[in-house]
Here is the input.
Amino acid sequence: QVQLVESGGGAVQAGGSLRLSCAASGRTFSTYTMGWFRQAPGKEREFVAAITWGDGAAYYADSGKGRFAISRDNAKLTVHLQMNSLFPEDTAVYYCAASRRGIASRVDVSQFEAYDYWGQGTQVTVSS
Here is the structure.
């Protein structure tokens, strides 16, 4: 069992930045693909970014390309999501997720069904 705990959410003005962190438990963290998803009120959960196990390839939803950066530290069992140039449309609860299935393709890492473990979420609110 893997536990994921997100932190770093908060309220910022448009154009601001936030750095989300996800702390994981478990010695097999390095073998998990890690993802970030978000869910705004009244909307479905959507893919934000992912970083694969192994070579650490990063994938982003179009909405975050050029603004978001995902990274991982296997020694510290953490994954981060640096978010810059935030828009009000980025307002959502952000969830960290871990997949133990060895997924690595862009299609697979963007599917929330491919993840086995989820954090409780952290709220991000961007005001105009």
Summary: The chain has a mean pLDDT of 96. The longest strand covers residues 92-99. The chain is about 5% helix and 45% strand.
